[in-house]
Design a protein that fits this description.
Elements: H1 3-51, H2 61-110, H3 116-157
Length: 160
């Protein structure tokens, strides 16, 4: 292998490393997306069971409070899942940009056209998109803690 081939492979590896890194971030966010969806479904199921229970007497005060808590948590989880979705989209877009970076680096070796600026811009935009995804992840974690705090607060207030 000559030096230019080795340099080409090395140039294409930097975006490849970022593709792997983003794939790991994306895997974690996909798991979180699934977890939040499951939590929303379980809260909705609990609400349905409380509302449509087969007993003639009206709901007790703690059941009414629980329904209120469930509705509030569901709304907060819905807002949280938007941040998870945004992070998933950002990481997916970043992977696409890093793939395009590698392709343009490879194309440059096959053609007379200089794609250095295009490759660099795609890589830098990809890094900015990754940063945006990390920002979404931080906001999502903040919202997750807020929802947990609400649940703990309501559980402590229960009077049976």
């Amino acid at each position: 292998m000559n030096n230019s081939t080795i340099q080409l492979i090395q140039s294409m590896l930097a975006p490849g490393v970022m593709i792997s890194a983003c794939a790991l971030l994306l895997l974690g966010m996909n798991n979180k997306y699934s977890m939040v969806l499951s939590r929303i479904r379980s809260l909705d199921d609990e609400k349905r069971k409380l509302i449509f229970q087969d007993k003639p007497e009206p709901l007790k005060e703690w059941e009414i409070n629980r329904l209120s808590s469930l509705s509030e948590q569901t709304e907060l989880l819905y807002n949280r899942i938007k941040w998870v979705r945004n992070a998933v989209l950002m990481y997916s877009i970043a992977i696409s940009l890093f793939i395009m970076t590698s392709l343009f680096i490879g194309l440059q070796s096959l053609s007379e056209v200089d794609y250095t600026v295009v490759s660099l811009m795609l890589f830098l935009i990809g890094m900015i998109v990754v940063f945006t995804g990390v920002f979404c992840t931080v906001l999502e974690a903040w919202k997750g803690f807020k929802i947990l705090t609400l649940e703990v607060k309501h559980t402590r207030e229960l009077k049976y």
